[in-house]
């Protein structure tokens, strides 16, 4: 039995179809990333899974329970932790009062240990909390009852880099201990660090579900290269360079600054440009939007299905400029 | 059970103490001015000077006894109108504000059914309702003795006890508004408006052909004058108020049970 099973989930708000026929399953013990640009419908899926929204069509099973049946949903929620994208608590309560309420309603197995990791100022009122502190308190309330499944909506927003790293380590350790994690993000690099599998949603439709490695291999890097002297275009015709652009001049090769997406072997690229004197070079994770543009076209409805996308890292030239 | 009620109740204690104190001060003031009022003003003449609708709205029957004076100066004004509106307003803020500010997601992710959440939050309104009725009766009984116009203790207790189902019914109006509207400000305005219109419909339409319309108003079933002037306790009325409260609660649960939390 999967931890979360969606079958043709559709949520229609009338003017917008926020989720359109979404089908996938999150297996027990895996970390599943739900990836998509802002406004793609991630939060709608999550809130439907939690029974906060009722599906227009399709079925949702959470830990094997039908979420539209309140008695069954209640059963599932006993073993569930949830952190919303913008968690909110009573402004006038202290962190400790919030923890006490949560403990009384769902139990407390491990808040002491969690508070050492994420340490919100418990004796202060929530209204004095920074966004990061609210997020820390939210993480403690999410995990304190030792759930089997946690659903996290954009969990690292609001956390500083140090805490993000701590959070990542924590999630990896929890996964080792058998926890199932379903989390949404619009940041590819966040997903790559944690996930086993990734589902990508765009405009309310599921574009693909696949292991994170294959996605990363295809998503490529965003390379910006600044040379002292113009580099001949031939030198940059390395396997895996797409959408090469240069600044100024009539075309690629005339300028001194080059940007392109790169999906090949990074050593091959470095070897090719070794003889040129560089002013600057940056290699970054491709922005998620670019990944969509590159591989799924401008419109998610044109997207190939997951089974059609088998090979990774091969040249997909001609798919358009970045 | 009742974890949420306990939590909410604790958070309402301070406000309820302040409420009790404020109402006690109002009670003390009304009692304090009564002797000079009685001595220096021809109360029947004063009464005759008011237009009838005003007397009707304020529930003025007589000013020539402390019971009658308290009945409108303190109980009609303080309890029926002010507290009634306050509870409708305050309860209207509960659920709608949770939804409005995104707290509902966290609450409902816990093993807590929607019906139970509504019932528990509503039950916590017992704290301000009971709190408002804790200190003032003592002030009224003692104050009346001090100015040598003693009141029957049983009547004073009854006027407070009977206000409890009335105030719950007003809170019920607020609760229903709170689940129907997911913006707290709107829910609160609607609750205030509806409660006030019900009050007016009851007090203004009494004695007219449209009197039956006032039958849906909680105010019809709580009459401080009857208690303090005639020693008549309307237990059937209290029963109707309890039934009204339950109807508001169940309607709110049904509505909230099937609505999308936006």
UniProtKB/TrEMBL annotation, chain A:
Q: Which Gene3D superfamilies match?
A: P-loop containing nucleotide triphosphate hydrolases
Could you cite one Gene Ontology molecular function of this protein?
A: ATP hydrolysis activity
Q: Tell me where the transmembrane regions lie.
A: none
Residues of the ABC transporter domain: 4-228
Region described as Disordered:
300-322
Q: What keywords are annotated for this sequence in UniProt? A: ATP-binding, Nucleotide-binding, Transport
Q: Which family does it belong to?
A: Belongs to the ABC transporter superfamily.
UniProt source species: Natrinema altunense (strain JCM 12890 / CGMCC 1.3731 / AJ2)
Organism ancestry: Archaea, Methanobacteriati, Methanobacteriota, Stenosarchaea group, Halobacteria
* Listed name of the protein: ABC transporter-related protein
Point to the regions of Polar residues compositional bias: 302-313
Automatic annotation (TrEMBL), chain B:
Supply the Pfam families for this chain: ABC2_membrane_2
Protein name from the UniProt record: ABC transporter permease
Q: Name one GO molecular function term.
A: ABC-type transporter activity
Q: TM segments?
A: 12-34, 74-96, 122-147, 159-181, 193-216, 236-256
Keyword set for this entry? Membrane, Transmembrane, Transmembrane helix
The question of whether Zinc is a record keyword is answered with: no
Q: Which GO terms describe its cellular component?
A: plasma membrane
UniProt keyword Membrane present: yes
The major lineage groups are:
Archaea, Methanobacteriati, Methanobacteriota, Stenosarchaea group, Halobacteria
Domain of life, per UniProt, equals Archaea
